[in-house]
């Protein structure tokens, strides 16, 4: 479903991603962790071309990401993204947020867009908030709307960039529960997160990134109980200490 081969990216002269390789199969769940600044966000943003890479290849569902705008559009329709700070449109209601892209990008008829939006709002368990504005919701509710909004485009792949790290602790579970349910439905997912309980239950493979490189890549059992690289061990000791 996703193939990344010897992919490099620079911000000006700063070499931020240094030869990443990754193959993700349909239905696979990947968790990416690593210290702040290691390139996790940049990596997943390259997968839907919110950032462009300069060397190597990224192929998403058989479409290679190049300067070709048509190909970028094709890939963006298949890839949903959820950000740390929700990025909902504040002047649109929850329902309008969910219908916007299906109406304007996918050209779905209005009645169908509304029905799909309600279906996904039910799925993330907030149909009763449909007519409110994002500012009237809690952080956990806003993030669930952001997930529903992404799902309304019927993506084949979902990317999550630290979806719970801006939330108050009591709201983390409600968002993780939605992500766990989504994983159970067979969605192909790449999640940047430091929720290691989530990684253990849901991930097929866990990646540890540091300084623009994939340092370690292993199934969670192996990753947590027997990390091979010293940098991974050190990182896990730091985050699992508390
Ligand atoms: N738009 C940008 N321009 C220049 N440098 C950037 C930009 N975005 C991120 N960086 C730098 O690239 C590195 C990786 O950032 P990022 O991908 O956000 O890391 P992470 O998500 O792992 O915290 C950091 O050193 C960051 O400062
Ligand atoms: Mg980040």
UniProtKB/TrEMBL annotation:
<dbReference type="Pfam" id="PF00005">
    <property type="entry name" value="ABC_tran"/>
</dbReference>
<keyword id="KW-0547">Nucleotide-binding</keyword>
<dbReference type="InterPro" id="IPR003439">
    <property type="entry name" value="ABC_transporter-like_ATP-bd"/>
</dbReference>
<comment type="similarity">
    <text>Belongs to the ABC transporter superfamily.</text>
</comment>
<dbReference type="InterPro" id="IPR003593">
    <property type="entry name" value="AAA+_ATPase"/>
</dbReference>
<dbReference type="InterPro" id="IPR027417">
    <property type="entry name" value="P-loop_NTPase"/>
</dbReference>
<feature type="domain" description="ABC transporter">
    <location>
        <begin position="2"/>
        <end position="236"/>
    </location>
</feature>
<keyword id="KW-0067">ATP-binding</keyword>
<dbReference type="InterPro" id="IPR050086">
    <property type="entry name" value="MetN_ABC_transporter-like"/>
</dbReference>
<keyword id="KW-1003">Cell membrane</keyword>
<protein>
    <recommendedName>
        <fullName>ABC transporter domain-containing protein</fullName>
    </recommendedName>
</protein>
<keyword id="KW-0813">Transport</keyword>
<dbReference type="GO" id="GO:0016887">
    <property type="term" value="F:ATP hydrolysis activity"/>
</dbReference>
<dbReference type="GO" id="GO:0015424">
    <property type="term" value="F:ABC-type amino acid transporter activity"/>
</dbReference>
<dbReference type="InterPro" id="IPR017871">
    <property type="entry name" value="ABC_transporter-like_CS"/>
</dbReference>
<keyword id="KW-0029">Amino-acid transport</keyword>
<dbReference type="InterPro" id="IPR030679">
    <property type="entry name" value="ABC_ATPase_HisP-typ"/>
</dbReference>
<dbReference type="GO" id="GO:0005886">
    <property type="term" value="C:plasma membrane"/>
</dbReference>
<dbReference type="GO" id="GO:0005524">
    <property type="term" value="F:ATP binding"/>
</dbReference>
<keyword id="KW-0472">Membrane</keyword>
<keyword id="KW-0997">Cell inner membrane</keyword>
